[in-house]
């Protein structure tokens, strides 16, 4: 359904509008009373077409009329105060006859058809925090209150049209100058440093550098100790400064753009930054809006303007905006006067509440009457509007915030290991300090005669016999501890964080460049919108997918219709008769325009429509297609010939129907194909060409679709002066408001039979996977119309709680409808979806579908995409109360032998590993495919009397859980979450039907907060934003529903099938690379620190070093950093062909084979051995020689660099040119740097390398260190891979030995890294 605000909120100013009848509101009709009589709202919480986001709608429609003393606002406040405990309880809109007093609506404070992501996630997060289970990290919105502030604001903003002085005199509104930059020349240095030192790593560096400046702790040279920190700060400052300079340049260009502003009776150019609220601005075609403006007039005589909002919300389709007909004279007479009362600035770009006072009239203004800053004018010559929000107060600027980033799962594990290394660092420093204290205590009297600790200088010159600064035993021990911290500082791998960022950038570059994930149909390539979680793609256990637009194409095709109880179009799919393809209606003039789309039609239905307007069936068909053509927000646009669609003699052209909803476009195109062509739509009337005859319908009011009512209605006046309401909506909300009695008050058996037949047709459509809508209408008497008009106009001009009041007005006419029929629209699966889902399931990933469609439709799609198989046993949970839901869950668990949440450690581990079969009471294991052609549909819900002990054995069965949104209302609100969790995680497939957007997020949080498994959510619409942001990884589809999901996602792509390659190939590579890189960085730094530790133990626990200051600094910065980055970006264990052919290889990431605690400690043991070899081989080799410490340090520097690089080379799986250059080039660069350092005469190590390099012992020692250090590692790898090979090793061996299947060998070997 369309998600814009009503095109017409009131027609009070129309000349042809009837006079108001002063009729008191009937006390028996409340906001929902006429609906509650027929249980109309029992399922209105559900998301039918899956295209509208959650509506935090006003609570007013849920307040019964018998409680007038309690205002809507107070109810809203009360609900929000108890959001944690009653959140999901508010989601149900249930007015059953048994619980008529318990009227609860999907409530909130604003009507948001496509609500911003921050709002949805903020509410979900707060509602799901429970004290008994600490949740994992979530993305809460910090702007929740701001989004609601406008609705609670009782002091509206007053805009005096064309009087900016008076407008800004009292309120002092902000100017139109914008600023997106962070710094100025004065604030750059302090502010940038303040921001940078928010990173704890930089604070750690700063403390270490500061300690090294103290004379007792000056281990390194003071300049050398400052170099790493200053280098990082300087590079970061240059980057930040360049980015901010670009922002300054962009702001300057933006603020100095010019627009035409009404000045002294004429439109003259004026810079954007000087425009202020209240001024009248004129915009020409293809120009950008400088601020938020209310339309006063356009070049179109009907006041229509087309805008593109891509700069604002990313959507490329054109939107329609309208100037009120009452302001036309203002433009023609150049008399710009009036007063606009509007809401205070807020971030909600999908709602605007205001009224205009003009000529003693109050004219309602809504979202369709405002154009926002950043939008572009298209297909319209010019528009004129008055500025209501300017500069930083525009909705575009208020929404220019950066969403909170997510953290990687591996990074959280890495932080755990960092704590272990921190503990080890403290232990080593304590050992050194303690050893020094013991040594000083034993040698207190001999310190003047011993090296390292002489109290006096023994040298020549002035310093001879001068006393050292000896601070006493206690302080010397303390200073020794601090000096050790400085020496061993790189044990904490601060450089690892920088390395990870560089590696992620490189990985993202190759993912974006993967041509196999380019969607040629939409021209969209893969997008990496978050660089923090690349490796998480290799550990996904659960995928939560939307259906419409994600699994399906969201390109709707009208297939079947049920009219007056008769089904049409069942054979359309096989009809190929060219006579049934509509190009120009046979009864229309040859000059009439035709729709651009050509579709097949049903010959019987077409013949019925050509008959005279007599008989119930013919009249129903007539009203049916009139409703399809009129009850929508689609705009006909001429794409050829004269732009005037109503011109009878214009040349032949095509009509392009512009609409934000594919459903509406499909229905309008279908109506046009059957001879009911929508040719003109304005704010006041609609023109429909019916079989060549033009009918003008005056639009008296339009009630837009929302997820509370689940329907849309339009009140129109026909040429014969009769008034009728035309309604379409979801079957759950429509069937319950149909009339059951005739005008005489007697039971209408014929209409009841039509309803029954139509329900059967709806079930048939759903089973075929079609999306359904029900169509109805009703004649309004003068009394009914007058009452509705009074309530409607009051609601339309209300500045507070307008959405709730409009729903109350809609309830007056949306009742006792006559059923006209139903529609079935096909939404075909995307290419490659079944194959992708099958591969993902083989990889050990569970795919859950969360959709707002009917249960039958979701099941049909599940079967067609191979999510469901005929051998699965289906558990259907459709509960209407807490007690019933509890009973259904308990019966299901008992029947299938599923244990409760109180599991042992082994059971929890099995659950995390995906082995759900061990959670059953039997020892049987779940089958990998369908085992029994038996489907348990309804066994749980319908056959409760079956004795569990006599039930069939389901221990080996594959289970599929199908649950509806109404049940989730009770389950997620009450203490039934654990029951649902046990049941859902024991099933191979879970399908949630009729779920609202926040329920989608609740399901994701159910898994995310109770397991350590990684979750991924994928969707294409605004209603998927909360789910996408709740999951560990969010993927947006660039589809037909706009780009809100893309803008809120971490990754974006064109089709669902690309998810297979993203996870199985890039996810696997990224995880394996990053996991190894983290372990290697731990090893690389630890082996260097331990080598220094052994040296200090042999120098009386002193803080002396054999290595130069610059060698210590360059070790992590130059000598060993480049190979780590290159391998982290380019290395791969298996080709993409192998990974796609064997999806089970993905389970290596699910089992944490690349990084776990065991591997960490094995790596540390290997590090310990290599450090011992590094120190003691040269130690024993030169033990009786006269080698000085600087020569020994030179040997250790060369040896450790070669050792760690050879260690890395042993584990590289894919050698390319850049890998060779990185590995061997780093060793060569180390020699070069050492030669340069040893060539500086002022350094104490001057000339050492030249003397050492001439010695054979030197080179033999280096070779011996490498062989002895790596030999245990090499032997362990050989033994392990020979006797206990992993799946990856087996597959790699098959690759190398060319033992792969023929279809893999025949594929091209070229690959994307």
Automatic annotation (TrEMBL):
Topology within the bilayer: Multi-pass membrane protein
GO biological process, one term: phospholipid translocation
Any GO MF annotation of the entry: ATP binding
Record flagged with keyword Transmembrane: yes
Keywords, ordered alphabetically: ATP-binding, Magnesium, Membrane, Metal-binding, Nucleotide-binding, Translocase, Transmembrane, Transmembrane helix
EC identifiers of the protein: 7.6.2.1
Protein residues bound to ATP: 546-548, 664, 705, 728, 771, 851-853, 994, 1000, 1023-1024
Compositional bias (Low complexity): 1-17
Superkingdom in the source lineage: Eukaryota
Protein name (Swiss-Prot/TrEMBL): Phospholipid-transporting ATPase
Species whose genome carries this gene: Aegilops tauschii subsp. strangulata (Goatgrass)
């Amino acid at each position: 359904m369309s998600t814009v605000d009503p095109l017409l909120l009131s027609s009070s100013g129309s000349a042809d509008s009837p006079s108001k009848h002063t009729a008191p509101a009937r006390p028996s009709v409340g906001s929902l009373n006429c609906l509650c009589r027929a249980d109309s709202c029992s399922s209105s919480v559900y998301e039918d077409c899956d295209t509208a986001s959650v509506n935090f709608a006003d609570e007013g429609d849920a307040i019964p009329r018998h409680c007038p003393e309690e205002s809507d606002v107070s109810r809203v406040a009360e609900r929000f105060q108890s959001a944690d405990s009653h959140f999901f309880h508010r989601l149900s809109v249930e007015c059953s006859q048994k619980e008529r007093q318990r009227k609860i609506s999907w409530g909130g404070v604003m009507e948001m058809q496509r609500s911003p992501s921050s709002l949805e996630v903020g509410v979900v997060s707060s509602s799901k925090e429970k004290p008994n289970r600490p949740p994992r990290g979530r993305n809460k919105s910090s702007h929740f209150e701001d989004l609601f502030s406008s609705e609670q604001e009782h002091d509206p903003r007053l805009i005096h049209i064309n009087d900016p002085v008076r407008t800004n005199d009292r309120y002092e509104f902000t100017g139109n100058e914008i600023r997106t930059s962070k710094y100025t020349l004065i604030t750059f240095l302090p502010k940038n440093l303040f921001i940078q030192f928010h990173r704890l790593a930089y604070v750690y560096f700063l403390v270490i550098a500061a300690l090294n400046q103290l004379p007792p702790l000056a281990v390194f040279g003071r300049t050398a100790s400052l170099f790493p920190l200053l280098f990082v700060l300087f590079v970061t400052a240059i980057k930040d400064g360049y980015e901010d300079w670009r922002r300054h340049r962009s702001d300057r260009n933006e603020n100095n753009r010019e627009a035409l502003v009404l000045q002294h009776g004429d439109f003259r150019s004026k810079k954007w930054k000087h425009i202020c609220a209240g001024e009248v601005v004129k915009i020409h075609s293809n120009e950008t809006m400088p601020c938020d403006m209310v339309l006063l007039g356009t070049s179109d005589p009907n006041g229509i303007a087309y805008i593109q909002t891509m700069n604002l919300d990313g959507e490329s389709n054109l939107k329609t905006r309208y100037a009120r007909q009452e302001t036309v004279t203002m433009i023609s007479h150049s008399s710009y006067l009036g007063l606009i009362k509007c809401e205070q600035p807020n971030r909600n770009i999908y709602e605007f509440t205001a009224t205009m006072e003009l000529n003693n009239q109050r004219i309602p203004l809504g979202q369709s009457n405002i154009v926002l800053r950043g939008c572009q004018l298209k297909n319209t010559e010019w528009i004129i509007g008055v500025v209501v929000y300017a500069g930083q107060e525009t909705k575009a600027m208020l929404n220019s915030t950066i969403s909170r980033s997510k953290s990687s799962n591996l990074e959280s594990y890495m932080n755990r290991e960092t704590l272990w290394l921190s503990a080890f660092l403290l232990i080593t420093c304590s050992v050194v300090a303690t050893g020094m204290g013991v040594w000083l205590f034993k040698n207190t009297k001999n310190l003047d005669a011993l090296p390292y600790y002489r109290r006096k200088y023994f040298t020549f010159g002035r310093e001879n016999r001068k006393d050292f600064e000896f601070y006493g035993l206690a302080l010397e021990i303390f200073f020794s501890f601090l000096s050790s911290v400085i020496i061993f500082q790189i044990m904490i791998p601060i450089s690892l964080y920088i390395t990870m960022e560089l590696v992620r950038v490189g990985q993202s570059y190759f993912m974006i460049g993967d041509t196999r994930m380019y969607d040629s149909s939409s021209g969209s390539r893969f997008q990496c919108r978050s660089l923090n979680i690349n490796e998480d793609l290799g550990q996904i256990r659960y995928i939560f997918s939307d259906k419409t637009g994600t699994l399906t194409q969201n390109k709707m095709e009208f297939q079947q219709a049920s009219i007056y109880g008769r089904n049409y179009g069942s054979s359309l799919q096989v009809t190929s008769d060219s006579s049934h393809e509509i190009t120009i209606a046979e009864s229309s003039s040859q000059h009439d325009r035709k729709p651009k789309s050509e579709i097949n039609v049903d010959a019987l239905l077409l013949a019925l429509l050509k008959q005279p307007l007599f008989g119930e069936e013919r009249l129903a068909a007539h009203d049916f297609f009139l409703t399809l053509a009129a009850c929508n927000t689609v705009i006909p646009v001429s794409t050829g010939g004269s732009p005037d669609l109503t011109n009878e003699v214009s040349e032949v052209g095509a009509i392009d129907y512009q609409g934000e909803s594919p459903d509406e476009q499909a229905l309008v195109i279908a109506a046009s194909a059957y001879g009911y062509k929508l040719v003109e739509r304005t704010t006041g009337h609609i023109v429909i060409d019916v079989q060549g005859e033009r009918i003008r319908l005056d639009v008296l009011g339009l009630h837009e679709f929302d997820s509370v009512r689940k329907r849309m209605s339009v009140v129109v006046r026909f040429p014969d002066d009769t008034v009728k309401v035309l309604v379409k909506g979801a079957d759950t909300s429509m069937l319950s408001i149909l009339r059951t009695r005739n005008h005489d008050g007697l039971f209408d058996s014929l209409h009841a039979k039509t309803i029954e037949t139509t329900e059967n047709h709806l079930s048939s459509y759903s089973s075929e996977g079609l999306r359904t809508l029900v169509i109805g209408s009703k004649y309004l008497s003068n009394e009914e119309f007058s009452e509705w008009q009074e309530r409607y106009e009051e609601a339309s001009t209300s500045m507070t709680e307008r959405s709730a009041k409009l729903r109350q007005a809609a309830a007056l006419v949306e009742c006792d409808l006559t059923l006209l029929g139903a529609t079935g629209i096909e939404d075909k699966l995307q290419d490659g979806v079944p194959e992708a889902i099958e591969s993902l399931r083989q990889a050990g990933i569970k795919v859950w579908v969360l959709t707002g469609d009917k249960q039958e439709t979701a099941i049909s799609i599940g079967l067609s995409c191979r999510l469901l198989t005929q051998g699965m046993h289906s558990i259907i949970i459709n509960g209407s109360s807490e007690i019933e839901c509890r009973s259904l869950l308990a019966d299901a668990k008992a029947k299938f032998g599923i244990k409760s949440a109180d599991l042992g450690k082994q059971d929890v581990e099995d659950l995390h590993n995906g082995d759900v079969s061990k959670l059953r009471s039997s020892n049987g294991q779940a089958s990998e495919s369908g085992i029994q052609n038996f489907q348990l549909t309804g066994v749980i819900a319908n056959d409760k009397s079956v004795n569990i002990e006599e039930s069939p054995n389901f221990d080996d069965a594959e289970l599929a859980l199908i649950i509806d949104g109404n049940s989730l209302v009770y389950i997620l609100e009450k203490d039934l979450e654990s029951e649902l969790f046990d049941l859902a995680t024991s099933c191979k497939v879970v399908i949630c039907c009729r779920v609202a957007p926040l329920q989608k997020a609740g399901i994701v949080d159910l898994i995310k907060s109770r397991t350590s498994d990684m979750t991924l959510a994928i969707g294409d619409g605004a209603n998927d934003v909360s789910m996408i942001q709740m999951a560990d990884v969010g993927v947006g589809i660039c589809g037909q529903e706009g780009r809100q999901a893309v803008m809120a996602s971490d990754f974006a792509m064109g089709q669902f099938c690309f998810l297979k390659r993203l996870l199985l190939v890039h996810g696997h590579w990224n995880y394996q690379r990053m996991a190894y890189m983290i372990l290697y960085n731990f090893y690389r730094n630890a082996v260097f620190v331990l080598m220094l530790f052994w040296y200090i133990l042999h120098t009386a626990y002193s803080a002396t070093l054999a290595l130069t200051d610059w060698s210590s600094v360059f070790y992590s910065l130059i000598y060993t950093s480049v190979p780590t980055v290159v391998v982290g970006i380019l290395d791969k264990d298996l080709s993409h062909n192998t990974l796609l052919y064997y999806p089970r290889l993905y389970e290596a990431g699910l089992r944490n084979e690349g990084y776990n605690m065991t591997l960490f400690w094995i790596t540390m043991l290997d590090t310990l051995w290599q450090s011992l070899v590094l120190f003691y081989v040269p130690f024993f080799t030169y033990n009786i020689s006269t080698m000085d410490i600087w020569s020994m340090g030179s040997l250790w520097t060369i040896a450790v660099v070669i050792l760690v690089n050879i260690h890395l080379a042993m584990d590289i799986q894919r050698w390319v040119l850049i890998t060779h250059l990185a590995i061997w080039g780093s060793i060569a660069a180390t020699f070069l740097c050492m030669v340069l350092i040893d060539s500086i005469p002022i350094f104490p190590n001057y000339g050492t390398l030249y003397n050492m390099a001439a010695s054979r012992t030197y080179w033999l020692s280096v070779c011996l260190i490498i062989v002895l250090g790596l030999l245990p590692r090499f032997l362990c790898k050989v033994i392990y891979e020979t006797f206990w090979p992993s799946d990856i090793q087996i597959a790699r061996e098959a690759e190398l030995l060319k033992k792969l299947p023929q279809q893999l060998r025949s594929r091209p070997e070229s690959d994307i890294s």
